[in-house]
Design goal:
Helix content is 76%, strand content 0%. It is built from nine helices and no strands.
């Protein structure tokens, strides 16, 4: 049983590693214009997360988007004829095929949405006042000597990061739509003599 447990964890780590590598890793995330736009929007919409309970909107919106993403994933996997599949399965110079890249984009779309949904539930669960006399607040007060830094720094940073993740989850919908559009143009580009040398 212990062997099976280790094998299942290795399997999960392996498939997430393959997805992360195909997507492009942290370099792809940190250089993404969609992430940058999400940070800017979060700063502009600060009244929605500084004091307001932003997680309510996330919990209402994201499950529908996750369902859409899974449906889109299934459609893309079954889309096109043999010619189309032959083009998108081509690997250039030992790199990743367009088929795997679009699969990684769709997987990223779903992973980010689920992470944002989880962050919303965590934010909702942690939305309570701390007391120096009881509970978690008393523990922090005994260790640090104050609980003010939680209200002044940790809570706002957490709200900011959670809302960025929520907006980024929405932005990845546009990123995925563009990735699917790029995929659908591959056959046209491949069959055009003038674009024979272009990167696919």
């Amino acid at each position: 049983m212990l062997h099976d447990l280790r094998r299942s964890y290795r399997g999960v780590r392996g498939i997430f590693g393959r997805y992360w590598s195909a997507y492009g890793g942290w370099a792809a995330v940190l250089t993404s214009p969609y992430l940058h736009a999400s940070i800017v929007l979060t700063a502009l919409l600060n009244q929605l997360w500084i004091e307001a309970a932003w997680w309510g909107d996330a919990i209402t919106t994201l499950p529908t988007m996750v369902g859409f993403a899974i449906g889109a994933y299934a459609i893309v996997l079954g889309f096109g004829d043999e010619r189309f599949r032959a083009v998108i399965m081509q690997r250039k110079s030992g790199g990743t095929s367009p088929y795997v890249r679009i699969s990684a984009s769709l997987a990223h779309f779903i992973v980010v949405q689920l992470a944002a949904l989880l962050a919303a539930f965590v934010a909702k669960g942690l939305d309570f006042s701390l007391s120096e006399r009881k509970g978690f607040g008393a523990l922090i007060f005994d260790v640090v000597g104050s609980i003010e830094f939680v209200h002044d720094w940790i809570a706002p940073i957490g709200r900011f990061l959670g809302f960025v993740l929520f907006v980024y989850a929405i932005a990845t919908a546009l990123a995925t739509a563009m990735a699917i559009f790029r995929l659908t143009t591959l056959v046209e580009r491949d069959e055009s003599p003038g674009n024979a040398s272009e990167d696919k």
